[in-house]
Amino acid sequence: MKRKVYSVIVAAVIISTLFLSACSKNDNKQTTTNSSGTQGAAETAVSENTPTPAETKADSSKDKVLNWVASGEVTTMDSGKSYDTISSEQIDFQADPLYRINEENKAVPNLAVALPEVSKDGLTVTVEIRDNAKFSNGEKITAADIVYAAQRVVDPATGSQSANNLSYIKNATEIIAGTLKSEELGVKAISDTKLEFTLVAPNSYINTTLSSTLLSPVSKKFVEKQGKNYGLTADALLASGPYVLKDWNGTDISWKYEKNPYYWDADNIYFDKINVQVVKEVATGVNLYEAGELDGTKVTGEYISLYKGKEDLVSVQTLRMTNLEMGISSNKYLQNEKLRKALLYALNREELSTAILNGDGIPSVGVIPNGIAVNPDNGKSIADDFGTLVYTDVKKAQQLFKEALQELGTDSITLRLVTSDTDENIKIGQYLQSVYETNLPGLKIDLANVPASVRFEEMMSYKFDLALGGWTGDFDPTSYIKQHEEGYEHNHSQWKSKELKNLVTALETTDGTDFSKRWEHLKEANQYLVDKAVVIPIVQASQSYLINPKLKGYVTHVLGTPIDVTHAYIEE
């Protein structure tokens, strides 16, 4: 059944889009805006005050189906190896974390029966899990399955690109380095339902930290049976969460999920099936949505203006940073600090945010997103306390570029910029190309628009010039600094700095209970990364969607999956 649409306007926008493409804590609250223009903290779910699935009447004689979208191909469905947002969003359907992040962006018990118990010294954390949890093959989930999941992530043999995300657990760093065995990781099963974590240092974010799907239960028996194929196809995956993956062979651009009958909370899972298809072009997604073939799709640019004031439009301001990353270790030109600074100051973030993204994002003020935390002493935000460190100064950029050319002994430089082949990323890439070539005569930018999986591979090879990347850390601001620490998997530039490493070490250890000192170290690290132009922050991303107004019960998040539909339902 087709929705009522403004067909002539939509068609016009789609045609123009195709043409353009061809041309080539004080309060830690983010805002969530629905199409009626009302705003509230991102802690408030869009679907507030609606009935629960159990209260909603539906025709039980036919399957309840959600038609959803992914913005690119999935690289892996292995919860222990996932490192990109596209894969992580899909893993959320079938991997069950200890805690879920609710509509208030707080951790709430999920597979765990209660929030963790923390010892007085902050170093021992105990978690009790449900005794009725099962994998999708009917086998019981025990604490040992979570211990194995964690050990597997840090084991160098696994090759997880997220291993350092567990470095807060005792011995993780040494295991990753190969000096200790994975069995020596500071997590153990006290019983079938009780876990004990030993931390390196007190962690004030432990509740949300333990919500990671890296700690979702994994069956050792099943993994060993599948071998290297584990997580690469639907048949080589065992679900612990609400849905079971079907019809995915590792490269498909469409797949589906079926309700997991063994899931401990199956009675509160509404949909029997979720059909997912990869849609990279916004115009295509809008067409499918308007035809009633999708219940939700991402929109950007002119479509945000087109649907403004309509109940379908939902926007979420996130803590995800869109950055221009540089292959400093692999490109001799980019090893010149003045060239990197020229790229930093030549960019007009305000223009990009308004003219290209149509307000779907706010200009970055530094490496750490504004709104993630506040100064514990005066309540000032990141922007107010740290200041706007990244800004536009074309004359300064041109002088720096001139000096860089002289130091490098050349009169021109060509850099390749790789972006994902989605509408939004292509447009941002074209904008960067135009701005840099205009503001910095002698600089040529060659664009390469590739599938997201190819971009990820290039960045993880650490051999590239420029890449349009994004970084979604966690609720601890340190995660945005740690990305650039020597030895961290996602330090794509391969930047090496003893000064930065010492700051990260302090943030993760001795600063655990000294919040004022921690804030000063965050400020210092943020300033350092900008001064050295290790990365070029562009915008703090918003995510806008068209969502079927009958879809209720979904949750919006400032971090991770912006729209979580695992417990959503259709209001009949």
Structure description:
Residues 4-58 have low confidence and may be disordered. α9 (337-346) runs antiparallel to α12 (394-408). With 572 residues, the chain is α+β, with helices and mostly antiparallel strands. A hairpin with a 7-residue loop joins β10 (243-246) and β11. It has two domains: 72-259, Dipeptide-binding Protein, domain 1; 318-542, Dipeptide-binding Protein, domain 3. It is built from 17 helices and 23 strands. Strands 1, 2, 13, 14, 15, 16, 17, 18 and 19 form a nine-stranded mixed β-sheet that branches. Strands 3-12-11-10 form a four-stranded mixed β-sheet, covered by helices on one side. This is Oligopeptide transport system substrate-binding protein. It is a lipid-anchor.
Summarize this structure briefly.
By secondary structure, the chain is an alpha+beta fold. The protein has 17 helices and 23 strands. About 10% of the residues have low confidence.
Name the features.
572 residues, alpha+beta, Dipeptide-binding Protein, domain 1, Dipeptide-binding Protein, domain 3, 9-stranded mixed sheet, 23 strands, globular
Outline the fold blueprint.
Layout: H1 7-22, E1 31-34, E2 39-41, E3 65-70, H2 85-94, E4 99-101, E5 107-109, E6 117-118, E7 124-128, H3 143-154, H4 172-176, E8 187-189, E9 194-198, H5 206-209, H6 220-226, E10 243-246, E11 254-259, E12 273-278, H7 282-290, E13 296-299, H8 302-307, E14 313-326, H9 337-346, H10 349-356, E15 361-363, H11 382-386, H12 394-408, E16 413-420, H13 423-439, E17 443-450, H14 452-461, E18 466-471, H15 478-482, H16 498-508, H17 515-531, E19 536-547, E20 551-552, E21 555-556, E22 563-564, E23 569-570
Parallel strand pairs: 3-12, 16-17, 16-18
Antiparallel strand pairs: 1-2, 1-14, 4-5, 6-7, 7-9, 8-9, 10-11, 11-12, 13-19, 14-18, 14-19, 15-19, 20-23, 21-22
Helix pairs in contact: 1-7, 9-12, 16-17
